[in-house]
Description:
Blueprint: E1 4-5, H1 19-28, E2 33-39, H2 55-71, E3 77-85, H3 96-99, E4 107-109, E5 112-115, E6 121-123, H4 128-139, H5 143-160, E7 165-166, H6 187-203, E8 206-210, H7 212-217, H8 226-234, E9 239-242, H9 255-264, E10 269-274, E11 277-282
Parallel strand pairs: 1-2, 2-3, 3-4, 4-7, 7-8, 8-9
Antiparallel strand pairs: 5-6, 10-11
Helix pairs in contact: 5-6
Bound molecules: zinc ion (2 copies).
Amino acid sequence: MQPANYHTHTTFSDGLEAPGAYLREAIAQKLVAFGFSDHAPILFDPSRPHVFMSPQQLSDYLAEIERLKKVYSGRIQIYKSLEVDYVPGVVSVDSEHIRNAGLDYTIGAVHFVGYYKKGRPWYFAGSERGFARGLEEIFHNDIRACVQRYYNLVREMVQLHPPDIVAHLDLIKKMNPTGRYFSEQAPWYKEEVVKTLEAIASAGLIMEVNTQAYYKHGAEEPYPSRWVISLAKALGIPMHLASDAHRPEDVAAGFQHVMEMLYGLGLSTVRIFEHGRWVDRPVEQRARC
Ligand SMILES: [Zn+2]
Ligand SMILES: [Zn+2]
């Protein structure tokens, strides 16, 4: 098992409990390293309510993690991060409030693809209804244009504002579990994925294997799908497991199952953050504890 998780959410963004509850659970589940990565503030429009977290909450969040590092010192390694959206001209890991946050590492993600007519950004990963609405209003139901725009944004993030870790690479498939919108085997889709993996490989970034779809939605495939993981492996992209926990009990949810999957795909190491630096550790098929 991988006794570490670097992608988690607390009440500082859309998680269910305060940070301390996650640490108690992580210690109970024998994790040795734990990273907080609440959604970073996105300052779309200063006159509107902030998405996920306000700049004021950001300072409270950073202070709370520093406090917990002291309280739990010696019992678990605690890391301070943010899941930072990439929205062109609005936010990236290079935004001032992110650079000034003193993070141990950054996770980069694309959750917003374009804007509704009235200017509201489209969060495509919320609900099936919201997905259908954005697809119609912004892309006139052209799913290929929508998916291509998504992967373009991921590549732009990787090339212009690279985070340490790329989150849930193929999240755009979230509302497509039955293949209703597109086939992952379509040549155009594969091409987008391959181009994006090549960009990640040349930027030297880590790609997380996100277990949330598996344990929360019962999907067979994690983010990204197994065929994408195999291609990433062939390109030498370092990977690790991430549960994207929004509840303390999910601090390592799906890890054993998906780690066995990675083992089956021939992955020999995972890249984890240990005592402040990234190191490669062997993939173990069986649970450690
Ligand atoms: Zn995310
Ligand atoms: Zn997340």
